[in-house]
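Dear colleague,

Thank you for sharing your sequence with our group. We've completed the structure prediction you requested, and as agreed, I am returning the results in plain text so they can be pasted directly into your records. Please verify that the sequence below matches your submission; if there's any discrepancy, let me know and we will rerun it promptly.
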Amino acid sequence: MGIARSLAISASALTAERLRMDVIANNVANVHTTGPEGPYKRQRVVFRAMSAGPFSSALAEQMGVGPRQGDAVGSGVEVVRVETDEAPGQRVYEPENPDADEGGYVTYPNVNIVSEMVDMLAATKAYQANVTVINATKAMALKAISIGGR
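Please find the predicted C-alpha cells below.
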C-alpha cells in the first residue's frame, strides 16, 4: 500500500465523518422543531466500506496477504445514504402550543440529545484518528524523501 493510497483512505473517512457531524448538528439544532406538517425526524448516516478493485483483491489473494476477492480491505469508507429515523417522537400536553393537535398534545422530534452528543463524540474521535494517520503518513513521506536525498 503506497503513501497516496493511505492518504486517500483517510481522506474518505474524513469526508464521511464530516458529513456525519453535519447531520448530527442538524439533529441537535432541530431538537424542538415542530410544525403543522409534523415534527422534525432524526436523521442518521449509513457508511459502507469501499470495495477493493478487482485487481488489488486478486493480487492480495495470490500473494496470500489479504482477504479473498471481493472483500473490502484498505479501500476507505463511503456514505451509502442519510436515512430518516421513523421512531415516534415524545408527545407532550401543551394545549396553548399552536402545533398542538385537537387533544392538546404536541409531538416533539424523536431526537435524543444525549445520544446525539455520544454520536458527535464518536465522530470527532474518528475524525481526529484519521487526521493523525494523515500526519503520520506525511511524516513518513518526508523521512523517505530525506533518506533518498542523501
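Summary note from our side: The two ends are 24 Å apart (CA to CA).

Kind regards,
the structure core
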